Amino acid sequence: MEQVVTKIGKRVRNVKNENSPWHPAYLQLKFAIISVKKYFENINSGIICDFGCGDKPYKVFCNKEVQYIGIDIDRDNDNADIFASVCDRIPLADDFADYCVSFYVLEHVAEPQKKVLEMYRILKKGGEIFMLVPLYWEEHEKPYDFFRFTRFGIEYLLKKGGFKDINITPLNGVFSIVGINIVKKINSFYLLKPLVPCINLLFYFLGKQTIKKDSGNVMTYAVTAKK
């Protein structure tokens, strides 16, 4: 089957900038960076397939012994190794990868169950997926922004796809949601921009202290599951 590809525009990521409290999306991305870095540091070797890789921003956290394969729908993406829609059959063999990862991509997939099934197909038995999935985020990468997922929706998709040992952990919650919206507003006023890092750091600290209590008020979930 011919793969459906498209152009979705530049998705330029810079982990160093995103890790700075001056970044307007700090309260979303700081927690993501910590989570991905911790996960990748425990992988010493093997094959990782990144579904919707963009410019592979988190590859910097991988061991050099890891084979990192980026899959993307955009043929203008110079960082991709394979061009394909993650809803279709990707040109990789069954039981190929040790890990399948996906960072803020599931919401951009028109048929998310097909993506889950394709990740399952190319994983080796005992292989693992790791995803970052938003429950709260404003519309982005328009018009390719289709869904937001509760923990129950994520669990449903994964169980239906055959996965086991599913772990869904909230990374950030209500303070990140409130803080990022405040920053978005004041960042548009030049004279108020110096307040951005102060607000980001305050709400980051508050978010770290309260995330376990933010049941339902979640910005991002970190998800793992095994084949």
* Helix and strand composition category: alpha/beta
Instruction: Please report which band the strand proportion falls in: under 5%, 5-15%, 15-25%, 25-35%, 35-45% or over 45%.
Output: 15-25%
Q: Please count the beta strands (DSSP E, at least 2 residues each).
A: 7
CATH superfamily: Vaccinia Virus protein VP39
For this structure, the CATH topology is: Rossmann fold
Report on the architecture of this protein.
By secondary structure, the protein is α/β, with parallel strands linked by helices. It has helices at 15-18, 26-40, 112-122, 151-160, 174-186, 196-210, and strands at 46-51, 66-72, 82-83, 97-103, 123-134, 164-173, 218-226. It contains 6 helices and 7 strands; from the N terminus they run ααββββαβαβααβ. Strands 3-2-1-4-5-7-6 form a 7-stranded mixed beta sheet. Helices cover 30% and strands 23% of the residues. The longest helix has 15 residues, at 26-40.
